[in-house]
Amino acid sequence: MYPDLEGKTVIITGAATGIGKACAIRFGQEKANVIINFHSDKQVKETEKIIEEIEQHGGKAIAVQGDVTKEEDIKNLINKAVEEFGSLDVMINNAGIENEVPSHELTLEDWNKVISTNLTGQFLGCREALDYFLENDIQGSIVNMSSVHEIIPWPHFVHYAASKGGIKLMTQTLALEYAPKKIRINSIAPGAINTPINAEKFSDPKLKEGVLKLIPMGYIGEPEEIAATAVWLASNQASYVTGLTLIADGGMTLYPGFQAGKG
């Protein structure tokens, strides 16, 4: 547990499902004030359940609908945080999408949709959080959600891989730029995680077996394991850490084909 997070205000984008949901609940367990950003009307009931669970742990939470690709929606997230809880301390840019398309068939519309959500959306979250931190002299923390595919090429997902590679250098550049202000900016690169977006793939035994062969630790991670890295990065325990991509992948980026001396 991280006592310094108690009472801090945290925005988490894409927090109705998967890793974002796990982050929201974990920050709630740390008794933080959580703004749960969600996109679809269909997610309202899920956010209500998340708020209830957070409050059971002693945290506070509100849900705010919004599209991370729209400047006005990101500004609204910041405004709602300040109106409800008086400040903003941590920004978790988690919202992201993916879809599989052979690169030669990828439409500009699909390219733009993924880049807009995954990269531009995170930039807008960073920019608005930084603007608030600077204006109010807050030594805040930003955590961006990247992927092992900022390192590992991924055929049929060129738009996704490009967005995650962009997040890596965006995070490092912003971290360098705002380090003198003691604002810390880091990212997390999850590997294969048991989230709704992966549910169909992992429900197929053959596909799941193929994924497991790429993970030296031998199991698919849970969203809560990623949330654990997010609260650490946001806490004072990581006070000297900035510009880091924390890889949480069970060893997927360690060239598993060379395991046991092969190669």
TrEMBL record:
EC class (word): oxidoreductase
Reaction equation(s) it catalyzes: D-glucose + NAD(+) = D-glucono-1,5-lactone + NADH + H(+); D-glucose + NADP(+) = D-glucono-1,5-lactone + NADPH + H(+)
Keyword Oxidoreductase set for record: yes
PROSITE patterns listed in its UniProt record: ADH_SHORT
Keywords of this entry: Oxidoreductase
EC numbers for this chain: 1.1.1.47
Classification via CDD domains: GlcDH_SDR_c
A GO MF label: glucose 1-dehydrogenase [NAD(P)+] activity
NCBIfam families: PRK07231.1, PRK08936.1
Protein name: glucose 1-dehydrogenase [NAD(P)(+)]
